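Appendix B. Worked example

We walk through a single record from start to finish. Start with the input: the chain for GDP-perosamine synthase, Candidatus Magnetoglobus multicellularis str. Araruama, length 372.
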Amino acid sequence: MNDELIKKISIPYTSTIKQTLATIDKGAIGIALLHDDNSFHGLITDGDIRRALLNGYGLNTPIHKIDRPKTVTASTNTPYSKLLDMITNKIRCIPLIDKKRKVKDLFMFDKRSKIPVSEPQIGTKELQYVSECLLSGWVSSSGKFVQQFEKMYAEFCGAKYAVATSNGTTALHLALLSLNISKGDEVIVPALTFIATANAVKYTGAEPVFIDSEPETWNLDPNMIEKSITPRTKAIIPVHLYGHPANMDLIHNIASKHKLAVIEDAAQAHGALYKKRVGLINQTDVGCFSFFGNKILTTGEGGMAITNRQELFEKMKILRDHGMSVKQKYLHSVMGYNYRMTNIQAAIGVAQLEKLRILLKKTKLLNFTLIS
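Next comes the structure step. The output line below is what the pipeline stores for this chain.
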């Protein structure tokens, strides 16, 4: 670890919590080193500060007054094997100090495993279909696999129509546009979700209104929706976070009462069940999916918008393709976007769909392993 970083994360032990947070932010490793002019006073983590704030300490509290675990240190000549033995689930950073009690380096090691949301399961069928695209020359947004993928995915979800897109974010944007969401409108979204949900709302000129989460599922809390509804509210976007369906019955009751559109953000929820497959639960207008590399079903990048309403389907198709008329090529009656999926991506998607039930079984097995 270089001297510049050590200097960046070092701060006088008389500093305030606010000053210490700023120092931790600069270092981007979650810690700050406390010192006076003569020696090292200990290490503090962002977790220590979080706990202090929850216990009622203010941002102007001197950092040395808050409770924190005793810092474990080692000398600069400590053998690597001994440093490893000192690492635990709670101790993941050991300051290495010299004889003058100055920090010269940090030993950092994390025994915890990083578990991905999902990993791509690519096999011979994907290779076969992609090779077919390459050999045929149909590599762009025209080609048989795009329509085939749309048809297969609509059938899988129990939808009448499906529109393949370049990614899940553009699927959300098309859904909002098809419902005429625009500047001056408000759309209710969960506070805990990937930024794409809120960004898609901002793309239309509307404002996202954030609703807190249920403590058990982390999904949008339906009981907090109505107090945030105003005359400008036009839609609700529940997110099925990590594949766990939101409480769609309550959400639809509220949407129906206030005449609001519903767009399901099912980016992580391929095949998830809420009475039926998510995407078009009850009176949902549009369901949106992502096929990014960390999703159960992947096309590398890609998305899908599904609907049972023909007028929304037709509008999304036109907007996806530069606003071009489906009847006359190069006639553009509205401003559109290039949100098309390529034939190569769709070819991967078709292969993935053919084995989706197997992929879902693997996901369930992983879930059972984690909770047990």
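Two observations about the output. The first strand starts at residue 10 and ends at 12. The CA atoms of residues 147 and 164 lie 8 Å apart.
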